[in-house]
Amino acid sequence: MLRVSRWLIFTILALGAGQGVLAQTIVCNGTALAPGAPLPASVPASVRAAVEKLAPWAGKHGLKITIGSGDPLIFAAPASFSAAPGILTKLKATREDFEKLLGPVPEGTSMEVVYLDKKESLVGYVDLLVERESYLKEWAPSQKDGVGFTLLRPLATAYRREPREKSEARIVNDLIHRYAHLLTNATLGRQPFWLSESLAWVLEQRREGAIYAFCGRSGFVKSKDHGGWPKIGRTWLTAGSTLPLEKILALNPGTEASKELTAGAQVLTDHLLAQHKSELLACAKGHREAFEAQAATPTAPLPDAKLREVFLAAFGPDAAKSLLEELRAAK
């Protein structure tokens, strides 16, 4: 999740009846706190409250919690996870990238990024989330055997990967990608899959120069394609006589997407950020309001017709034509 060279370590040892010694390490601003010492006053209240809830679970499972003054991020990972400092640095840079593109994260926000390497740690985190948010009770059983999830309440994401797992997955890419989702949710509110996923791909590409995190597709990706998404996407977007806007807007996590569609969504969103930021923010506002209006079914996606309506209201009725012309001119 996060790593920052300035941040500190303090160890709290707790004895539990029949449980033995629970070791917990906390990193805060590069200053080691004494066992049991309160968090510095500069730590946001929302972060402080979340850490208090997370600490017993972290201690039980040998995890390190990293926080910083004025920083909404809470990063939890195994204390033995040697890549944590480097990942923390990149997560901090990802937030800076996001805020340059889309504005500051609202004050009072806390975001939990959790990396785990044992199933029992994930099970414990899911149980803890249910204790904190009762609405997750029905959701919880399906998550305990998985590899992770992202939530809007609380703003939290978890990723589990067994150390012996052999795959092309890259932990740093996945954590950057997941943190990008939290930043989007915190700042723009709930967004449809096409936009939230595309923004995460844009930020992942900017930090790592390649895409390895795919929430909406599971097909094989050639080694050369991980770094070739921008070219693949631009070629696909500009190949036809019309911009394949409907296909991008209809992206959803339950349907396998081709690499061309995946890449096309990323390239279009990157273009909108560069050339039409105010319109993109208006589009995001329209999405948030549309989701809030369907409060009776808060987890339901927006209908395709509504997605198109919101997009064209922000970018104009001829957006498909004008954006295609712009993308061709930029090749």
Account of the 3D structure:
It is a single chain. The chain has 331 residues and is of the alpha/beta class. 48% of the residues lie in helices and 13% in strands. It has twelve helices and seven strands. A seven-stranded mixed sheet has the order 1-2-3-4-5-7-6, sandwiched between helices. The longest helix has 19 residues, at 84-102. The protein is globular. 39% of the residues are buried.
Question: What distance separates the N and C termini?
Answer: 35 Å
The helix/strand order is EEHEEHEHEEHHHHHHHHH
Q: Which stretches are low in confidence, meaning pLDDT under 50 for 5 or more residues running?
A: 1-23
Biggest sheet: strand arrangement: 1-2-3-4-5-7-6
Helix content: 40-55%
Q: Based on DSSP secondary structure assignment, what is the total number of beta strands?
A: 7
Give the CA-based shape: globular
Strand % is 5-15%
Query: Number of helix segments?
Result: 12
Structural class: alpha/beta
Mean pLDDT, to the nearest integer, reads 86
Main beta-sheet strand count, sense and barrel state: 7 strands, mixed
Tell me the Rg in angstroms. Answer: 21 Å
